[in-house]
């Protein structure tokens, strides 16, 4: 018979049984019993300075490891602070467990200090939101929450723990984890997909984030090599093919016309593999009436905005390998548009903008410096802003999943706390977070967390003194969108970080090289001159 323990201890035991190892959070009065249970458990607790940052850390932990982490907050404002980071994980299909403390059950559903309906609050941004009403229910509800969080498509879940339930005792048994398994797609569906491919003259393959979740990167490479079908990736999956691979079409997903869109316009069939509609508007991929065939781990949404001519649902590796064998007798003639797009991007990426005016460096050159410096064992995170579009398009990944670009919710503030989570998981290499000066200040308090933990990471701030992406969408300049920045050297020093400022491309390259081997956290600041490259990374730049 299971030994009696508190509800808080049962919750931690249930999480551990499901493979959860890490809790990021900010404690509060209503989580006292839970904090005691964490102290007595095998789970790691990372004390954060803000709940939003804790949620972003849990999100990045899930992106890299595939295993959800917990973000923990107390009731009221602590819980509401979690919401942005929880929504980020939910829309990017990242497994995450949000746990919020709550007042005792007798105060719920009535007007009471700091009490709001947390189950309802988290419902729109999670796959599962439940208040734990009795301690006996904790093992079962926790097992179901983790199952929902980790099973395709993964996402965020929320458990609300009233303080009296946390203190209540239970002898309810722990429920074991239920691993997800994907079967081989049905042969009829594979035949339908194959028939569509055979009829096509200019097919294009687009790989999305499901390729990473389904561990199908190698299968995609084998399929491309076997069929010579050109491949474009979403922001989330860049790095599947090297930039010199003969079939690469680089990345899709820019909000304005890009050279890659010319390849999509020329295609007569779009083949998606593990593509999530949240990654990019389907109307931009299909360019009108281009037929689509989908290979996916779960059925594609019927309301995603395009007509799917054929679909194979199941294990992606098995689907791709079967299709490669089925299509071994067919070749597609080279498409001049595909070749022009590929060659144009290569010329663009290889050139040097060379503009370093008034101590500011072009975004093109910054991306080139990052691409030339990072190693396969390093991890790169992007914040959100105009810099994100440049990184997503022009930083060349050495491996799939190396560059993390928040793209579903696209909330500012992820990169700095996310780098902390990434650095904790990093056995080799270095973590580099690239932030705009608007983005980095949204969770600047976590510099203390990184210093306290003694983590090896570098945060690179691109300074333009305003919200550059917003400015790009304004017809006229709006001075009210400009702001002042702190003295980065003094800010870094106050948090115990090393700081260096780069005024030229050569200094950027040197600081990146030294930063990737430095001990402890490092802040690198550089003024970016978006105007030197026309602001947005668009098609005209690849000429």
The unreliable regions are none
CATH topology of the largest domain: Rossmann fold
Strand content of the residues, in percent?
A: 15-25%
User: Mean of residue pLDDT?
Assistant: 91
Could you describe the largest sheet, including whether it forms a barrel? 7 strands, parallel
What Rg, in angstroms, do the CA atoms define?
Answer: 24 Å
The total strand number stands at: 21
User: What's the domain count?
Assistant: 3
Helix content: 25-40%
Structural class: alpha/beta
Termini distance? 72 Å
According to CATH, the homologous superfamily of the largest domain is: Thiamin diphosphate (ThDP)-binding fold, Pyr/PP domains
CATH class of the largest domain: Alpha Beta
């Amino acid at each position: 018979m299971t030994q009696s323990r508190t509800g808080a201890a049962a919750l931690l035991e249930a999480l551990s049984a499901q493979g959860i190892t890490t809790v990021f959070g900010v404690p509060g009065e209503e989580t006292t019993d839970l904090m005691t249970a964490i102290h007595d458990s095998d789970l790691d607790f990372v004390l954060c300075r803000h709940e939003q940052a804790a949620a972003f850390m849990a999100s990045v932990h899930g992106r890299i490891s595939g295993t959800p982490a917990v973000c923990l907050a107390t009731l009221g404002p602590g819980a509401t602070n979690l919401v942005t980071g929880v929504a980020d994980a939910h829309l990017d299909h990242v497994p995450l467990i949000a746990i919020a403390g709550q007042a005792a059950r007798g105060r719920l559903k009535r007007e009471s200090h700091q009490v709001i309906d947390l189950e309802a609050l988290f419902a729109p941004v999670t796959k599962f939101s439940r208040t734990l009403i009795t301690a006996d229910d904790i093992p079962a509800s926790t097992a179901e929450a983790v199952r929902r969080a980790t099973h395709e498509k993964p996402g965020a879940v929320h458990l609300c723990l009233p303080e009296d339930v946390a203190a209540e005792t239970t002898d309810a048994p722990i429920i074991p984890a239920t691993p997800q398994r994907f079967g081989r797609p049905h042969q009829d569906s594979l035949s339908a997909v194959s028939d569509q491919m055979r009829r096509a003259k200019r097919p294009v393959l687009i790989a999305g984030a499901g390729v990473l979740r389904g561990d199908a990167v190698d299968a995609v490479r084998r399929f491309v090599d076997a069929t010579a079908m050109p491949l474009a990736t979403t922001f989330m999956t860049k790095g599947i093919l090297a930039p010199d691979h003969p079939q690469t079409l680089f990345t899709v997903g820019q909000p304005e016309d890009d050279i890659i869109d010319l390849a999509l316009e020329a295609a007569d069939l779009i083949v998606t593999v593990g593509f999530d509609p949240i990654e990019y508007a389907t109307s931009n991929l299909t360019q009108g009436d281009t037929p689509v065939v989908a290979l996916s781990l779960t059925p594609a949404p019927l309301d995603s905005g395009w007509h799917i001519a054929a679909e194979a649902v199941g294990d992606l590796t098995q689907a791709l390998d079967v299709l490669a064998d089925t299509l071994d007798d067919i070749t597609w003639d080279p498409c001049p548009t595909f070749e022009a797009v590929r060659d144009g991007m290569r010329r663009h990426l290889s050139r040097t903008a060379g503009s370093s005016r008034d101590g500011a460096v072009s975004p093109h050159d910054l991306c080139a410096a990052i691409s030339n410096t990072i190693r396969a064992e390093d991890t790169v995170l992007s914040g959100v802003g105009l810099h994100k579009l440049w990184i997503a398009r022009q930083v060349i990944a050495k491996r799939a999943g190396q560059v993390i670009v928040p793209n579903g919710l696209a909330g500012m503030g992820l990169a700095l706390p996310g780098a902390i989570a990434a650095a904790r998981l990093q056995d080799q290499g270095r973590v580099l977070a690239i932030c705009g000066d608007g983005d980095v200040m949204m969770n600047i308090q976590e510099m203390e967390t990184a210093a306290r933990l003694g983590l090896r990471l570098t945060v690179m701030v691109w300074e333009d003194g305003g919200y550059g992406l917003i400015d790009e969408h304004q017809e006229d300049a709006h001075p009210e969108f400009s702001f002042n920045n702190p003295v980065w050297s003094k800010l870094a020093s106050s948090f115990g970080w090393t700081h260096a400022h780069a005024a030229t491309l050569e200094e950027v390259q040197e600081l990146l090289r030294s930063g990737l081997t430095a001990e402890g956290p490092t802040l690198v600041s550089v003024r970016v001159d978006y105007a030197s490259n026309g602001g947005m990374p668009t098609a005209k730049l690849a000429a």
